[in-house]
């Protein structure tokens, strides 16, 4: 599940996203499937849903904004599917036409059924013009175990056609004829744009949304050009295979510091990622910004 530092970045994405994955369900998604059976099987879910508390609010907002073809979640330990239909380009799903009995409706918050709300809503009101998908297929699975529905295979069709120039940088194979993981240049530009603007200790959704949409978009576009020049064109989007151990191996016989907070260990992958983008590492103890020339050399 993404935290407050991730949500503002995701709301700056402007190109189609095919799959969303979160630990918790997006709020309100339960109403777009067989919620009667769900609530019959899990009565506690209805107790949460009727106070508008089932699922994640940031996940709901991001799902409605990005409108991926698929959204996968866990957390609730039950298999559940739903199809969310998005209307126009408005970043909001309406439950006013919910097919529910009067008894159920009477127990739901009025705000869920389209009643006017005086509370000012934060966040973008419209999806970007390049995001045109209108259906999100939601699937949650149970936890692994005997007689649990925790596994399902799906075939996902890509937005991009084979041979599309847009995905060509990501389709390079290794000498063993295998595909590898690559960074997305738009996402790198968003991370680079917010590298200094949103410190880890103050990365709230409201802080990010306080900036004008035009200002955010302009900053991201500037950094996208930087990424395309310094990384994409140089063939540096491939994620390096540089995983290594950072912390000491757990020793169950070491009882000396059982009541103390574990030491913090620097992560070389995070440090390398920040050097690559020429941004400061907010997770390190050193908050000073190093000289740009000391960060990385492109060869």
Jot down its keywords.
alpha/beta; disordered C terminus; 299 residues; globular; four-stranded mixed β-sheet; 4 strands
Question: Quick gist of this model?
Answer:
This protein is an alpha/beta fold and 299 residues long.
Protein model, in words:
There is one protein chain. With 299 residues, the protein is of the alpha/beta class. The protein has nine helices and four strands, in the order αβαααββαβαααα. A four-stranded mixed sheet has the order 1-2-4-3, with no helix packed on it. The longest helix is centred in the last third of the chain and has 20 residues, at 213-232. The protein is globular and about 60 Å long.
Helix segment count?
9
Strand content: 5-15%
Q: Report strand order across the widest sheet.
A: 1-2-4-3
Any idea what the radius of gyration is? 22 Å
Shape: globular
| Euclidean distance between termini CA atoms | 36 Å
Q: Report mean pLDDT, rounded to a whole number.
A: 79
SSE topology sketch:
Layout: H1 7-10, E1 19-21, H2 35-41, H3 43-49, H4 57-66, E2 70-73, E3 80-85, H5 102-106, E4 135-140, H6 185-193, H7 205-209, H8 213-232, H9 268-277
Parallel strand pairs: 1-2, 2-4
Antiparallel strand pairs: 3-4
């Amino acid at each position: 599940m993404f935290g407050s530092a991730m949500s503002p970045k995701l709301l700056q994405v402007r190109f189609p996203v095919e799959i969303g994955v979160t630990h918790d369900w997006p709020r309100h998604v339960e109403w777009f499937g067989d919620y009667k059976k769900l609530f019959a099987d899990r009565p506690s879910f209805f107790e949460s849903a009727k106070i508008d508390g089932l699922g994640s609010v940031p996940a709901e907002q991001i799902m409605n904004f990005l409108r991926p073809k698929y959204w996968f979640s866990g957390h609730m330990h039950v298999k559940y599917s739903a199809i969310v239909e998005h209307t126009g380009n408005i970043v909001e799903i309406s439950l006013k036409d919910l097919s529910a009995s009067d008894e159920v409706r009477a127990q739901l918050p009025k705000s869920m059924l389209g009643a006017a709300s005086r509370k000012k809503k934060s966040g973008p009101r419209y999806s970007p013009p390049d995001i045109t998908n209108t259906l999100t297929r939601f699937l949650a699975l149970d936890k692994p175990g005997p007689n649990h529905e925790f596994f399902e295979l799906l075939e996902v069709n890509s937005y991009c056609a084979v041979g599309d120039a847009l995905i060509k940088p990501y389709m390079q194979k290794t000498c063993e004829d295998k595909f590898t993981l690559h960074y997305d240049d738009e996402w790198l530009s968003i991370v680079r744009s917010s590298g200094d603007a949103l410190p880890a200790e103050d990365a709230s959704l409201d802080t990010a949304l306080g900036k004008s949409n035009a200002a955010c978009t302009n900053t991201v576009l500037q950094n996208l050009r930087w990424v395309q020049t310094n990384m994409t064109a140089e063939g540096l989007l491939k994620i390096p295979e540089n995983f290594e151990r950072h912390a000491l191996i757990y020793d169950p016989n070491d009882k000396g510091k059982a009541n103390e907070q574990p030491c913090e260990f620097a992560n070389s992958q995070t440090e390398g990622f920040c050097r690559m983008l020429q941004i400061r590492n907010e997770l390190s103890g050193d908050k000073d910004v190093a000289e740009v020339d000391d960060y990385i050399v492109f060869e």
